[in-house]
Design brief:
Number of domains: 1
Pfam family, one: adh_short
Structural class: alpha/beta
Keywords: Oxidoreductase
InterPro entries: NAD(P)-bd_dom_sf, SDR_fam
Shape: globular
Protein name: Dehydrogenase/ SDR family member 4
Family: Belongs to the short-chain dehydrogenases/reductases (SDR) family.
Length: 286
């Protein structure tokens, strides 16, 4: 099950293989790391997937990820049709306004936070009981390096940091007892002029100008295959020791494997409170 975020561009669809079972999979990932808004766009992606392998079963739905009832109903339909859910990838998001907290639209600020955090919660809330019953599952919440910013796009930072902590909570509550893994995976997308603007919204013109200044000089972006490739590996079980942690798709899988002992001993790739002589709080105990 994959959720996606906000634009009007169709997503790439290509084949991959689950290294645990050697079965064919189909991965979809936006070329802009943003969302499909229209139901017909979602259906088009399903057609692309079926074109890759006619045996693939698909189920699509255009819904508001903030609507808990709609999410619950969709999850129940998926379980009824396919018998279970092995993987949840949550990628829905709303681009932030690039403005100080004292400026901008209160409505857009909250919308950005709500889609990220409430959407992640809603899908996790109703998928987790399914995975708990199965005694297995993988949840990937798509985050961002923006979670670690501290000025200029506060709604995005708040949302992505919340998602990171949510992945850690899911891990702490489910890993030992139910063999459910949870990751916060950062795959930085591609910025294009005009993709961040909602005309007429308070502060939007200034926000776009700031975003253009920030992104305009960048000529190379992470390719969508990087994020999709990392997610395939996360689902394979090779990086289960990173469950509950922040993943950067820009790093090589081999790098994580080589640093496994260091990551576990130093409790790396997590957000914690520096409590001075009392250490870092909380520690992640497997």
């Amino acid at each position: 099950m994959a959720t996606n975020g906000v634009s009007g561009r169709l997503h790439d669809c290509y084949a991959s293989t689950d290294p645990r079972t050697n079965k064919d999979l189909v991965k979809t990932l936006s070329d802009k790391n943003v969302l499909m808004l229209e139901a017909n766009e979602v259906e088009e992606v399903a057609k692309l997937c079926k074109g890759t392998d006619g045996r693939i079963g698909t189920k699509t739905r255009a819904l508001d990820v903030r609507d808990a009832v709609a999410v619950k109903d969709f999850v129940h339909e998926v379980v009824s049709d396919f018998g279970g859910i092995d993987v949840l990838i949550f990628n829905a998001a709303r681009p932030p306004q690039w403005l100080p907290l004292s400026e901008g639209s209160p409505e857009l600020w909250w919308e950005s936070v709500e889609i990220g955090i409430r959407g992640s919660y809603n899908f996790s809330r109703y998928v987790l009981p399914v995975m708990q019953k199965q005694k297995s599952g993988t949840i990937i919440l798509v985050g961002s390096m923006g979670a670690h910013g501290n000025a200029g796009y506060s709604s995005y930072t708040t949302a992505k940091l919340g998602i990171l902590r949510l992945a850690e909570i899911i891990h702490a509550e489910n890993f030992k007892e139910y063999n459910i893994k949870a990751f916060c995976d950062a795959s930085e997308g591609r910025f294009e002029p005009g993709s961040y603007i909602i005309r007429g919204a308070e502060g939007e013109e200034k926000s776009v100008a700031i975003a253009m200044e920030h992104f305009g000089h960048i000529t190379e972006w992470d390719k969508p295959e990087m994020g999709a490739g990392m997610m395939t590996v996360l689902c394979s079980g090779r990086l289960d020791f990173l469950s509950g942690r922040f993943i950067d798709s820009g790093l090589k899988v081999e790098t994580y494997l080589q640093q496994k002992q260091e990551i576990l001993e130093q409790d790396l790739f997590r957000v914690r409170l520096n409590a001075g002589s009392d250490g870092l709080i909380p520690t992640l105990k497997y």
